[in-house]
UniProtKB/TrEMBL annotation:
This is Protein kinase domain-containing protein. Gene3D superfamilies: Transferase(Phosphotransferase) domain 1. PANTHER family: SERINE/THREONINE-PROTEIN KINASE YRZF-RELATED, SERINE_THREONINE-PROTEIN KINASE YRZF-RELATED.
């Protein structure tokens, strides 16, 4: 096991009180696997109740940038073990882990740290405020982590770092939990959000909830009578939908409701775009139009009573 010699002023906690930063000399037990390193510690990346993370530069030819994390021994062991189990995504979704190192302070107290690739600074923006493409990358990393059997409870901005080249990595894996994930949708090319797809490609409550909290779906969707629908050219904009509320009382099945609403707003959009009928005229006539749409729906798909009777027969 490798050893690391700590300057006495490096402490796991209370990092804010430090006035300067020392050299760390990392001595490897097996120099063939890992050469000795001197790391110049420059600043604090993160300080909290449970951990302190320093930024350092290795005094090697590459001047590799590293993050050195101090925390309670058992938490570090847990986190290093998790990194070990997902080696294939290190350097992509999560930082590379260079190792866990043990040492003693001058008071002979046991200390440990993990040294990782420096992958950028913690997010200062809200996840939901990031450009959609960036949110897609972060969610895609999260989905990869899930597919490797790991779920990050309370996922938040603190779990994400951004590098200078604009790429993102997920950090703080010590609280990760075992997870069996049914999600198979690609966030970089997600297609249509389907609120009913709880058993298909979107079968993960956590990813559904996180992606919704990040408003990942809403920019490309419109809210129609409490339903989310994919925005497309044949539907009107959200402000027009909002200006045409409907009093719907006689539709009992969600499928019929969704189809009727789609048919209704498509027709509204045709009237406004192609026939130059004003919103005011449509507003005055909307309930009659919606009744006609329901009749057309029943002629095409069958009435709800027939559908329900058929289901009961089966
Ligand atoms: Zn999942």
């Amino acid at each position: 096991m490798a050893a690391i010699y700590f300057c006495p002023c490096i402490r796991p906690f209370g990092a804010a009180q430090l006035t300067d930063y020392p050299l760390c000399t990392m001595l490897a037990e097996d120099p063939e696997c890992l050469p000795d390193h001197v790391i110049v510690v420059d600043r604090i990346l993160h300080k909290g109740w449970r951990s302190t993370v320093y930024y350092g530069t290795c005094q090697d030819q590459e001047k590799s940038k590293v993050a050195i994390k101090f925390a309670q021994m058992d938490r570090l062991l847990m986190e290093a073990g998790i990194y070990d189990n997902v080696k294939d995504i290190q350097g992509d979704c999560i930082p590379k882990l260079y190792g866990m190192f043990f040492g003693k302070t001058i008071r002979n107290t046991e200390m440990a740290c993990i040294i990782m690739e420096y992958a950028g600074e913690q997010l200062t923006d809200l996840l939901s405020d990031l450009p959609r493409q960036d949110r897609a990358e972060i969610l895609s990393h999260l989905a990869t982590l899930h597919s490797h059997g790991l779920h990050l409870p309370d996922f938040a901005e603190r779990n994400v770092v951004k590098a200078e080249d604009g790429s993102y990595r997920l950090i703080d894996l010590e609280d990760a939990q075992d997870h069996e994930c049914g999600w198979s949708l690609d966030f970089r090319n997600p297609g249509e959000y389907d609120p009913y797809d709880v058993e298909g490609r979107m079968a993960c409550v956590s990813l559904r909830s996180i992606s919704s909290d990040m408003f990942f779906w809403t920019p490309d969707h419109i809210h129609i009578h409490g339903l989310l629908m994919y925005r497309r050219d044949e539907l009107p904009t959200q402000d027009i939908v909002d200006a045409l509320p409907l009093s719907i009382t006689c539709i009992r099945t969600p499928h019929k409701l969704r189809r009727c609403l789609e048919m209704f707003y498509k027709e509204v959009w045709v009237k406004m775009e192609k026939e130059n009928i004003t919103l005011k005229v449509i507003q005055d006539d909307k309930e009659a139009l919606f009744l006609r749409i329901q009749k057309e729906h029943d002629e095409k798909y069958g009435s709800e009573d027939e559908c329900i009777r058929q289901k009961v027969k089966k």
